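Researcher: Next sequence.
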Amino acid sequence: MLFTGVLKLATTKEQFKTLRRGRPDWVDSLSSTQMKIIGVVEALIGVGLMLPKILNIAAWLTPLAALCAVYNAIGAIDLHIQRKDDAEAIATNLFIIALAVFVSTAGRGLWDDFFIIPEIP
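Model: Next structure:
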């Protein structure tokens, strides 16, 4: 999310369309301001998912950023449904939602029964 957010902030809509593979024509249904706002939100989500763990501060930011990622992906799904895009665009965002739910709950020990992670001495 950090990379795509910064990419949306640093490029124009036309440049962004040429940088993306697949079907970037969804960009046409947004204004430049909306693209920049989405870029800020995605960049903040990326920072919020990584920085607390890296710096060992404000652990509550990671679940909050993951929740924001879920809302962002839901908005993207809504956009793709309105545009009648293919299932791949929706599936990608469903995958992002699944990852965000996992990240937001991983630090709470909810997955300990499913994953055995060996301790490094």
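Model: The radius of gyration is 16 Å. The chain has a mean pLDDT of 83.
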